[in-house]
UniProtKB/TrEMBL annotation:
Species in which this protein is naturally found: Arthrobacter psychrochitiniphilus
Protein name: DUF3253 domain-containing protein
Pfam families: DUF3253
Length: 172
């Protein structure tokens, strides 16, 4: 029986009905640990909206896109630009959630492709989007703790927020 907070899920699983209003459900294919991190970031961003922080609405938007609650519906085949948007939103949301830590591109691929093995096929796209973000100065790609050019890096890389790289290089 649905309650007022969780609502009722539509038969196809695509929407929640809460107080008579239809809301898009988050992507059920997101692995639980990563889903929780994205939900935590969404809740923190919503609190930031209430306290009128400058980037709060962008944070909410990124978290909702990453969860599949905005943007192209997660149950449809993604258009390339919509897929890139979800990848970049997921990168930003996970980097914000982990603050001064790093993320692995494979975690982003698991969010946008689900818990099975399909994520492996999207690693090239995730790395391409990460490289574009790095070239715009939005993040830093690293290997063994050292900054690298993401588009030329071979082997595993990690993604870090630019500010944490500045702090690490200045010894803070």
């Amino acid at each position: 029986m649905p309650n007022e907070k969780t609502g009722e899920v539509t038969q196809d699983g695509h929407y929640l009905i809460i107080k008579g209003r239809r809301w898009r459900a988050s992507d059920p294919g997101i692995p639980p640990k990563l889903r929780q991190e994205l939900v935590d970031e969404l809740m923190a961003a919503r609190r930031a909206v209430k306290s009128r922080q400058d980037d709060a609405r962008a944070r909410v938007n990124d978290a909702k896109i990453a969860l599949g609650e905005r943007g192209q519906p997660w149950w449809e085949k993604s258009e390339p630009t919509a897929f890139d948007e979800r990848i970049s939103a997921t990168i930003r949301a996970l980097l914000r959630k982990r603050a001064n830590s790093s993320i692995c591109p494979s975690e982003v691929a698991r969010v946008v492709c689900g818990d099975g093995d399909a994520w492996r096929e999207s690693m090239g796209e995730v790395r391409r989007v990460a490289a574009e973000m790095a070239s715009r100065g939005e993040l830093t790609a690293t290997q063994k703790g050292m900054a690298v050019e993401a588009e030329n890096a071979r082997g595993p890389i990690r993604l870090r927020p630019v500010s944490s790289m500045r702090e690490a290089s200045s010894g803070q």
